[in-house]
Automatic annotation (TrEMBL):
It comes from Lentinula aciculospora. Its EC number is 4.2.1.77. It catalyses: trans-3-hydroxy-L-proline = 1-pyrroline-2-carboxylate + H2O. This is trans-L-3-hydroxyproline dehydratase. PANTHER family: TRANS-3-HYDROXY-L-PROLINE DEHYDRATASE.
Length: 406
């Protein structure tokens, strides 16, 4: 046991709680992360991103050898402007292989469980202020938590046992900040793909000098570009073929490059009306046309694959993209207010009970208020020591990627 004790006594130790939501991991950092500076949560996020000593901790926690390219993290922040004003119970910053995001649905579901389960005031100073309630609809016991994220306050409802612990057999539910369609509704955005950048399946779709691809941009706590697989030349995502996923990853990477380097209309679609720090393209989501042709929701089921950050693939159905898609479906008359829709990732389709469900419950001048639910499960806890960089040259973090086909 001496090695465990020596690690626990290390002055630079970082402690985490580990969960997954529909297969997507979440590493909740509960202690040891460097102190952040700033009066607001967005200032904290900016500081973490720009300060080398802070960001190096993110890198060695997210990347190999301590994890991998697909890791996701949540950094608990005990106090910022909205906890001081009484509008939130706790704050969080989200992080991944590339940096810091503005919202994350799968992490919010996991955080809901953990923040109800912990009684440690060093981790969650306002835990004792949370109260048990009875759901007016079915009498279910719940705990309501106000989580301050970089995109705003998210209200999280956690089914709770009489012992004041989260009930993992029932889904965590939360309500987003206002979500909206950012690109022109009727025509979306047309991307011109030069032949020298086109992937094989897109070339098979047409032989012009330039091939046009239509995407929609929508906001669900982060900005996403949504496009059907058929539009990109893929008939279906229903395959375990590794080559298909390499081709999809190449297509998403090229789309991202073209989206960020084309006309001002695209840049205009990525402007948040209130917070400049949020105005960037976070992910590319490809919808399975074989299940939902032309985004039509006959079966109230959407299946997709989401690429975000530095070509990271979301194992889960991507909660913030669910909240980005629902306004688009509503505005295109494919979904009704209050109507639930189920969402699956390319992976969760293989494991029953791992879909997300979402619906719009309100519309106001800022957009739609989306409600989403899903399940999270504990996988363990961990203690990490920082790398001795002069000795361990790989310990600071690295990414292993498959070579691109393009």
């Amino acid at each position: 046991m001496d090695i465990f004790q020596s690690i626990e006594e290390h002055p630079g130790i970082v402690r985490t709680v580990e969960l997954h939501t529909s297969g997507e991991p979440i590493r909740i950092i509960i202690s040891g992360f460097p102190k952040l500076q700033g009066n607001t949560l967005l200032e904290n996020r900016r500081y973490a991103s720009e300060n080398h000593e802070v960001d190096r901790v993110r890198k060695w926690l997210m990347l190999e050898p301590r994890r991998h390219q697909g890791m996701y993290g949540a950094i608990l922040v005990k106090e910022t402007e909205l906890t001081r004003s009484g509008e939130a119970d706790i704050e969080v910053l989200f992080c991944h292989n590339e940096g810091y995001s503005t919202m994350c649905g799968h992490a919010t579901i996991a955080l809901g469980r953990f923040l109800v389960d912990t009684q440690d005031v060093e981790i969650f100073p306002r835990r004792a202020l949370l109260q048990l309630h009875k759901n007016n609809v079915d009498g279910e016991i719940i705990t309501v938590l106000r989580l301050h994220t970089p995109c705003g306050v998210v209200t999280v409802t956690v089914p709770t046992t009489p012992q004041n612990k989260s009930d993992g057999s029932k889904p965590v539910r939360f309500r987003y900040v206002p979500c909206f369609v950012a690109s022109p509704l009727e025509q979306g955005i047309t991307i011109e793909v030069p032949m020298q950048m086109a992937w094989p399946k897109l070339i098979q779709r047409g032989n012009q000098q330039q091939i046009q691809v239509r995407v929609d941009i929508s906001y669900g706590g982060a900005f996403y570009a949504l496009v059907s697989s058929e539009e990109l030349g893929f008939t279906s995502l229903q395959s375990s073929d590794a080559e298909l996923f390499k081709e999809l990853a190449d297509a998403a990477r090229i789309l991202r490059i073209l989206l960020l380097n084309q006309d001002p209309q695209i840049r205009k679609s990525l402007v948040h009306p209130e917070e400049p720090d949020i105005g960037f393209l976070y992910g590319i989501t490809i919808l399975d046309s074989s299940i939902t042709p032309n985004l039509h929701l006959k079966k109230n089921l959407i299946t997709w694959i989401c690429f975000f950050a530095d070509e990271q693939i979301d194992r889960s159905p991507t909660g913030s993209c669910v909240s980005a898609h629902i306004p688009l479906a509503l505005d295109q008359n494919q979904l009704e207010m209050g109507q639930w829709c189920s969402y699956q990732s390319f992976l969760s389709t293989q494991f029953p009970g791992n879909e997300f469900r979402g619906r719009a419950i309100e519309r106001n001048t800022k957009g739609y208020v989306i409600e989403l639910e899903g399940f999270a499960h504990y996988t363990g806890t961990a203690s990490f020591v920082p790398p001795q960089e002069k000795i361990d040259t790989m310990g600071s973090g690295f990414v292993l990627k498959l070579p691109s086909n393009m």
